[in-house]
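anyone seen this seq b4? input:
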Amino acid sequence: MIDVDAIARALAASGRSATRLVDPLHGKPIMLQAYRAAAYTADAPVVIVQHGMGRNGDEYRDFWIEAADRHGLLILAPTFANKTHPGAEPYNNGGVLDGAGEATPREGWAYHLPARVFAAVQAAGVTRRRQAFLFGHSAGSQFAHRMASLTDRSPFCAIGCGNAGWYSLPLLDQPFPAGLGGLGLTDAALEAWLAYPLLILAGTADVQRSGPSLPSNPEAVAQGPHRFARAHNFLRVAREEAARRGVPCHWRIESVPGIGHDGDAMSKVCAAIWFEGAQPDAARMAALAGKVAL
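predicted toks r here
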């Protein structure tokens, strides 16, 4: 297990913390960036946040401080450094495949780290919650939805994915990471994934058609010209696959007006949906989009 004593020490007091952790099954270190609100108690919500390609877990932690202080939250941002997890394969794609395209041992996948961190926080007595919220943006959104499709979702009461560059479609006839084929996923497991209440967040201004952070591999381009289109395609494919199988699809998408590829704004929108019941009002949304000062 991840060092429970280190977790207990790091999260004992309110404010920011940064703790180096190693999960014995994964074998590589991560940095846990965290923020404990002054009003946080062990019965309050815990939010796990997955950073983008900048590997800036400290910034993503800070994006959630406003919501943490308002709602008494504990924010945990497991951070995968480029030095230990270089490129998309070990982070966005979880280290699921090796250099030859063969599946690696499941217990070593990076996708298990959020649940293992949360289990250590539970063991340390920092939380009595049985489940955490999990939000990922950009590369972290790729991480989050693939994690949710391939690992145990029971540690999480809600999963939100914002502005992913592309998606692993819920199809068993397409190999991972374009689809979910080739990893031993069963029909029952796929149908349970379609039934999970996944929240997809898509900024209406996230429509750049090129750039260093927009995946341009053929499988990604086939999903749409930009991130906003790819998010809607992801939901469309899920609904069509569920209909074909005669099973429910409980995924939903929230189009976020005026917001582009902005991890700060999307974090605040997700926090509002989860803890206030809806996206921010028009004035607040305009401020998040940089149109007016607030």
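The CA atoms of residues 224 and 281 lie 29 Å apart. The chain has one domain: 4-288. kinda curious what u guys think
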